[in-house]
Amino acid sequence: MNVEHLICSPNMRESLLFLINMFSLSDAYRNITLEEIFSKVEEYQLWNYYCTNFREYDISFKSELYNDKNPSCRIKPISNGRLQYTDYGTGDRYGIFDYVSAKYNVTFKEALNIVSNDFNIRSKVPIVIDPGLKQLNLEKRLLIRPKASIEIISQPFNITDFNYWSQYDIPLTLLQEYRVHSCKYVYLTKGDKVIRFEYDKNNPLYAYEFISDNRTSYKIYKPLEKDKRYKWMFSGGSQADIEGLDQLNLNGDVLVLTKSLKDCMCFRLLNIDAISLQGETNKLDSELVNKLLKRFKKIIINYDQDEEGIKNTLRLNKEYSFEYFYIDKHKDLAEFIKQEGLKEAKIMINKKING
Question: Domain range holding 312?
Answer without folding.
Answer: 245-354
